[in-house]
Amino acid sequence: MVELDNFFFQINSWSFTKHRVWNRCQRQYYFEYIAPYVKSTPVVNPEKIRWLKNFTSKFVVQGQLIHDIIDKQIQLHCENKPMDLVEAMNAFSKKVSLYKNIGGETFTEYHNGEKIPGSFYAALDENGKTCLQTFFGKWQDYRSRACLRHEEFDHFSIGDVGVTVKVDFVGRMPDDTLVLTDWKTGRDDDEYETELQMAAYVLWAKQYYKLSADEISTELVFLKTGATKPYRFFEEQVCEVQEMIPREFVTMNASYEYGDFPATPSQRECLSCKFAEVCPETAVVRK
Ligand code: SF4
Questions:
Q1: Which residue has a Cα nearest atom 2 of ligand 1?
Q2: Angle at the Cα of 138 (from 137 to 144), degrees rounded to 5?
Q3: Cα gap 277→56, rounded to integer Å
């Protein structure tokens, strides 16, 4: 019987990110969310796991950098200070240079043996600047929205299951409608289960702001192309997700035994997996 640190049970909750990892590779889920807390006879030393968790996929870094810059600009707006495109662009380029200067050492892919060519940083810089330009162009439409929250972790419960969400931007329209916005920095066909993500946001907002589903709108804004996709949910759709989340959470927590988390190796996933170094089933061939 596996003994886990008490802290695991304090922070154990459902999130869309966990859902994605769970459905991508359950072994990866084990390494990411359970292995750091194993107290007795761990398969991999939890210290090693915690160290590996410091690496970040180059694809995730790209999104994070843009989100960080945008969030700082929104904060300026919320404080009634002017936003600054030039400052945002410079701050972004500086961050890209920092990664370039260390040769991408903190990228998971680099740690897993992939060479990161100079062209990657050039593309990262160009894509980021396009996204920032789009964001600033679009922001005109957001000025009339009251800024309620942005990029904060929020927690709520469905029965006894904790759920964690982080909405990019929560705004209130002049007609009092609440709009939950998610900035997407990838391609505009990159919408893996977006409806589930947005429905989880609606469930949170219903509780947090004490509203019904029809008083809440959601939208995806694709910063690469400027496309916006609105999503509205009927109460029944939100109810389905409300039932699905605890069901999945029970499955995720049915066992904490390493052997109950099967690996799903593929070259693409394993190269971007933080745990390829310690995973016996990895598809990454280390030289
Ligand atoms: S290396 Fe591959 S198989 Fe192993 S945990 Fe990561 S994604 Fe899963």
A1: 270
A2: 120
A3: 14
Q: Are residues 172 and 117 in the same domain?
A: no
The vertex-89 CA angle with 84 and 94, nearest 5°, equals 125
Percent of the chain with pLDDT over 70: 97
Best CA proximity match to 238, nearest among 272, 195, 275? 195
Closest ligand 1 atom, residue 283 Cα: 2
Number of domains composing the chain: 2
pLDDT (0 to 100) of residue 144: 86
Which residue, of 126, 142, 158, is where some domain finishes?
Answer: 142
With a 6 Å cutoff on the Cβ, whether 276 touches ligand 1 is yes
Note down the domain range covering 62: 58-142
Do 239 and 159 share a domain, yes or no?
yes
- CA–centroid distance, 117 to ligand 1, in Å, is 24
From CA 76, how far away is CA 65, in angstroms rounded?
A: 17
Q: What is the per-residue pLDDT for 193?
A: 75
- For residue 175, tell me if it sits in a domain: yes
Q: Which pLDDT tens digit goes with each residue over 118-138?
A: 999 999 999 999 999 999 999
